[in-house]
Design goal:
With about 210 residues, the protein is an alpha+beta fold. About 25% of the residues lie in helices and about 30% in strands. It has 2 domains: about 90 residues, Dna Ligase, domain 1 (2-Layer Sandwich); about 100 residues, 2-Layer Sandwich (D-amino Acid Aminotransferase, Chain A, domain 1). The strands form 3 sheets. Strands 4, 5, 6, 7, 8 and 9 form a 6-stranded mixed β-sheet that branches. The chain has a 4-stranded antiparallel β-sheet with strand order 10-3-11-12, covered by helices on one side. The chain has a two-stranded antiparallel sheet with strand order 1-2.
Amino acid sequence: MVTYHKIDAVFERDMTGNKKLIPGKFRSETVEFLANNTWIFTEKIDGTNIRVHWDGHQVEFGGRTDKAQIPPKLSEYLESVFKDNTAEELFEQKFGEADVILFGEGYGPGIQKGGLYRDDVSFILFDVLIGDVYLKWDDVKDIAKTFGIDVVPVLGYGTINDAVEIVKSKPMSLIGIAPMEGIVARPVIGMFDRLGRRVITKIKVRDFT
């Protein structure tokens, strides 16, 4: 099963001094080139990475890696949502025999700061891969609606500097009473750099405190 790609921080880190980010020194030349274009900002949830894989015939689950252990209560939740007869029919009708991975965070009590988000364990969707194509955000939301699952909140649209300013304000999460962990920003039009890597970046609150 394909694992989710790494998302780099927006700026380089000082490797010889205080180890903090260096504002304005972008890690990616592509992100820097596109910084003043319009990006979509979604909330970074503090949970555990979960993959829901439909191979065209059946559903399987994975953590960040194939060896990662999924907490028992979260595993029970995933089974109840994605492995009953209705869910399998939904996968068949929506995707046929296509290879699909729903990427999300398992979150809730006992998972990172999950108890501040909600009172029970759950799964929140942040990306969908069909074959080798990541879907547009509207399509991600549509899939979440189909399966009756949560999707990470959209914080807004703007430039990379706009996203940095949001993070600097130390906002609260749009879910529950948790402090916001950060922002994941991607261009409104999906793009890849010259090496074929997806253009996407993260901006964590803790890096600006």
